[in-house]
Design a protein that fits this description.
The chain has a single domain, classed as MetI-like fold. It has 14 helices and no strands.
Length: 324
């Protein structure tokens, strides 16, 4: 078997060499890290109930018991109720659904579709395409993201609501607006506009290093199309970085959604969100008399963001060839 120089070996060649030497799969290495397992467990404990909210939430997010406001934890209401008699556990589950929808949609459209596509094109094509894409990325990265998100969501909300009402009337699909779809669409679209920059830069830097690799040059010599070269030969070799970037994107999108809603321009009541719960539970009076109103959403959001950060660190250690 010929020997491959480690300084010039591609990712695929390195994987083959390590596999021949008893290489352990990334999943098995990750399963041996308690911190990673705990982080995954926390994420699943929040995401799964959020996805299954219509079936696992004890109450609907609009259900109120006006005579049972600020109730203490009990069998009927494990986390108590808020000022309108709404079950806090149910509100937290429905709020998790909001976070899941917006964060996954923003990560998929911004981080994956736009970020990977622009990163691959900029790194492979170089020249004018690289200059245009990176200058746009630099422009978006140079301005305060939260300020632009505030402007976009505040100025376009009425127009988006109108568009969804027109769609509802044209298709005859009732409940589209009342479901909160316009808010979800507006927020994840705004997040996607800025969410692709980080992923594109990561992918571009790796593609620039792989651009002159032997297998890419061989594919070009064989007449392979640009699409095939990028998505069949180059993309698999940057998948490790993409996986790490996805965890960071999900956490960042979730935090942005909560922050925008807390400021009053995200998901609008009565639709549930951790930002709304934190806002309604804030204030010195509530913290003294009913601390659970703030603690429940704050603990869930804090645990979710911490879990994503820890999982990202663990994935970096596991997937980085230099740290194996």
């Amino acid at each position: 078997m010929s020997r491959i120089d480690a300084s010039t070996a591609t990712v695929d060649e390195a994987e083959l060499l390590m596999a021949g030497a008893g290489h352990v799969s990334p999943i098995r290495r990750l399963s041996r890290r308690p911190v990673a397992l705990i982080a995954i467990a926390v994420i699943l404990a929040i995401y799964i109930p959020g996805i299954l909210a219509p079936w696992v939430a004890p109450y609907g997010f609009k259900e109120t018991e006006l005579g049972n406001d600020f109730a203490s934890p009990s069998w009927e209401h494990p986390l108590g109720t808020d000022r309108l008699g709404r079950d806090l556990l149910s509100r937290a589950i429905w709020s998790a659904q909001t976070t899941v929808i917006i964060s996954v949609a923003a990560m998929t459209t911004g981080g994956l579709v736009l970020g990977i596509t622009f990163g691959l094109l900029a790194g492979y094509a170089r020249g004018a395409a690289d200059a245009i894409i990176m200058r746009v990325a630099d422009t978006l990265a140079s301005v305060p993201t939260i300020l632009l998100l505030l402007i976009i969501t505040a100025t376009l909300r009425d127009r988006v609501d109108t568009v969804f009402k027109d769609i509802e009337d044209f298709v005859g699909l009732e409940g589209l607006v009342s479901s909160g779809a316009p808010d979800y669409f507006l927020i994840f679209t705004a997040l996607a506009i800025f969410g692709w920059v980080g992923m594109a830069r990561i992918v571009r830097s790796q593609v620039l290093a792989l651009r002159e690799s032997a297998y890419v040059l061989a594919a070009e010599a064989n007449g392979a199309s640009v699409f095939r070269i990028l998505f069949r030969h180059v993309l698999p070799n940057v998948s490790n970085l993409i996986i790490v970037g996805v965890t960071a994107s999900l956490g960042a999108a979730g935090a942005s959604e909560v922050g925008l809603t807390f400021l009053g321009i995200g998901v609008q009541p009565p639709h549930p969100s951790f930002g709304v719960m934190i806002f309604e539970g804030s204030g010195l009076t509530n913290l003294r008399a009913h601390p659970q109103l703030m603690l429940v959403p704050a603990v869930v959001v804090g645990a979710l963001l911490l879990a994503f950060n820890l999982l990202g660190d663990q994935l970096t250690d596991v997937l980085s060839p230099r740290r194996r």
